Amino acid sequence: MKDNEKKLDKDIWIIALATLVGFIICTVFSQPLLAFIKNQEVTILLRTVVASLMQFSLAGLGIVAVCFYRKEKFSEFGLWKKGALLSIIGTTLCYIPYIIYIVVSGQFSGYQPLSVMVTPELLASSLPVKIIGMLLVALAWGFFEGFNYAVISQKINQRYPNHKINVGGVTCGLICILFHLFSTSFWGLIEILTTFIFVYGMVEVSEKTKNAWGCVVVFCLLWNAF
């Protein structure tokens, strides 16, 4: 194996193991952690920190560990101005099938970006708490979750280049499906399909435009918003 291939193998394993550890911890301690996050006797900001750390351990910790280990900057993975608008437009188009699914299946109840478990309480809090809390949510469920897919896809495609299919895109699509709860009903299968189309298309756009801002913006403004 070439030195670069060994390097990429190590990076992929670091991301995989860090994510697996985070997943195991969140799964094993899910009941007490969720009970703490739902406990309204505890300040909402502290509960938001805990919820954000849980999310970060699943989507973000691995790539941060690799970037720290390799001394790589986030900008090296496409966080720059060139191609940003095209990346955002292309990624948004990939999300349209999922929006159609939400509307047609009767699940649309309004647009609220970054709508997660703690969001309603944060929005009802004082302005300082609201700002700090929503910034944490935007980082964990917006920036890092979206950017996570972009980095993983790039690492995998560099290690296993394929001119016929985006191996990183397929992997990220499957990861998204495996880490989210889906039903096996008709609409559940449609959700799986539209989710895969979105994630695969998103990282494909990121690869083609050499820009990852589309992944970040769509996760901040569209994912969890419907």
Gyration radius, rounded: 18 Å
Low-confidence region ranges: none
Number of helices: 10
Percentage of β-strand residues = under 5%
Q: Write down the overall mean pLDDT.
A: 94
Shape: globular
| Span between termini | 46 Å
Largest sheet, in brief, is:
none
Q: How does the helix and strand content classify structurally?
A: mainly alpha
**How much helicity do the residues have?**
over 70%
Run of helices and strands: HHHHHHHHHH
Number of strands: 0
Description:
- There is one protein chain.
- The protein is mainly alpha-helical.
- 73% of the residues lie in helices and 0% in strands.
- α3 (44-58) packs parallel to α7 (127-159).
- The model has no long low-confidence stretch (mean pLDDT 94).
How do the strands and helices of this protein lay out in sequence?
Layout: H1 3-28, H2 30-38, H3 44-58, H4 61-70, H5 84-104, H6 119-123, H7 127-159, H8 167-178, H9 186-209, H10 213-221
